[in-house]
Amino acid sequence: MAIRAANVTLSLGSNDAAVSILRGVDLEVPYDSSVALLGPSGSGKSSLMAVLAGLEQATGGTVLVDGLDFTKLDEDALARARRGRIGIVLQAFHLLPTMTALENVAIPMELAGMDDPFGRAQAELEAVGLGHRLTHYPSQLSGGEQQRVAIARAMAAGPKIIFADEPTGNLDGSTGTSIVDLLFARRAALGATLLIITHDPELARKCDRVIVMHDGHVVERVTT
Ligand SMILES: Nc1ncnc2c1ncn2[C@@H]1O[C@H](COP(=O)(O)OP(=O)(O)OP(=O)(O)O)[C@@H](O)[C@H]1O
Fold first, then answer.
1. Which domains does the chain have, with CATH numbers?
2. Which Gene Ontology cellular-component terms appear in the entry (predicted)?
C-alpha cells in the first residue's frame, strides 16, 4: 500500500481551546492508483492531506506512507522522507517570483543534492508542454502555465505519491480540464499514486476510488 492510515486523529490548540479536526480516519491507498477526496468545506480534507504528505504531525493513530511510519519521524526526518517520495500541488501555485520556470523546478532538487537537477527539470517541463517557457518568470506565464510549472516541480524528482489540493481552483474551466488531464497523464507515466482533493464529481469519477469526508471522518468509500 502507498498509504495505510489507521485511526488518525488531529487536534489543534490545547486543552479547553483544542479543536478536533480529524476524528479517527482509516484509509488504504494502493500503489499506482488515483483517489479523489471529496467532502464539504471544513470536513478535514486539506488537514488529512497535510498529515499524509508529512506536512503536519497527526495527534494520534498510525500513518504509514510508502512503508515509513510518519508518526515516528520528527520534522527534519519528515522533510527528508518527502524528498523524491512525495510531490505536492496546491491551488495557489507558490512559485518563487524571482526564479525562472526552470529554476523553480530545478533549485529544490539541487538543494536536496539530487543528480542533474537542471537536466531533470528541463525534461519534466518539456513533458508538461513548457519546453518553450524555460526562461520565463512566473509573472510572464498564464495561470495554467504557472500550474504546469508547479506540476513539473512536484513530478521532477519522480515521486511515488502526488498530493493535489484543488489544483484547478484558480483556473478557468478549459484550462482546468487540461491541467487535470496532464496530472493524470504524468501520474500514469510515473506509475505514481495520486490523491486529489476536489469539489468536482466529474473529476472524482476519473479516479479509481472516491473517498468522502464529513466532520473529520471518512463517511463513504467508492471504487469506481
Ligand atoms: N490551524 C488551524 N487552527 C484551527 N482550526 C483549523 C486549522 N486548520 C484548519 N482548521 C479547521 O479544521 C477544519 C478542517 O479544515 P480543512 O481545511 O482540513 O477542511 P477542508 O475539508 O479541506 O475544507 P475546504 O474544502 O474548505 O478547503 C475546519 O473547521 C477548519 O476551520
1. 32-56+79-223 (3.40.50.300)
2. membrane protein complex; plasma membrane
Per-residue pLDDT tens over the stretch 20-33: 999 999 999 999 99
Q: Look up the ipTM and state it.
A: 0.89
Q: What is the 3-state secondary structure (H, E, C) of the chain?
A: CCEEEEEEEEEECCHHHCEEEEEEEEEEECCCCEEEEECCCCCCHHHHHHHHCCCCCCCEEEEEECCEEHHHCCHHHHHHHHCCCEEEECCCCCCCCCCCHHHHHHHHHHHCCCCCHHHHHHHHHHHCCCHHHCCCCHHHCCHHHHHHHHHHHHHCCCCCEEEEECCCCCCCHHHHHHHHHHHHHHHHHHCCEEEEECCCHHHHHCCCEEEEEECCEEEEEEEC
Is residue 14 pLDDT above 90, yes or no? no
- The pairing of strands 34-38 and 193-197 is parallel
pLDDT in tens, 36-74: 999 999 999 999 999 999 999 999 999 999 999 999 999
Distance in Å, CA 179 to ligand 1 centroid: 25
CA of 212 to the centre of ligand 1 (A): 15
Residue 135: per-residue pLDDT: 98
8, 47, 48, 199: residue to mutate for ligand 1 pocket, most atoms within 8 A of CB: 47
Determine the Cα–Cα distance for residues 4 and 10; give it in Å rounded to an integer: 16
